[in-house]
Amino acid sequence: MAILISDLYGKEIITTAGNKIGSVEDIILDFESGSVASLLLDKMENISRAERTAEALKRKSVNFGRVKSVSETIIVKT
C-alpha cells in the first residue's frame, strides 16, 4: 500500500471493533527501514519532554503495524 504521509494527517482512527481511538496529529518515521513506525494522537510538540519515553508515547500512539486499511478513516486491529 503506497500513500502520501500528508494524507494521513487528521484522519480518524477506528478499531476493527468500531471503537474510535482519535485522529492522526503527528507521525513517527523509522529512518532505518524507511517506513512509518507510529501514528501519534497528539502533536509531538504538545507532548512534554517528560512524556517522551517509550511507555508514554505508546499510550499516545498507534503502532503502524496495526493498520488494516486506509481510506476516509484508518482501520486498525483491535
From TrEMBL:
InterPro entries linked: PRC-brl_dom, PRC_barrel-like_sf
Highest taxon in the source lineage: Archaea
Signal sequence interval, chain numbering: none
Domain named PRC-barrel: residues: 3-77
Coiled coil (residue ranges): none
The protein, known as: PRC-barrel domain-containing protein
Originating species: Candidatus Micrarchaeum acidiphilum ARMAN-2
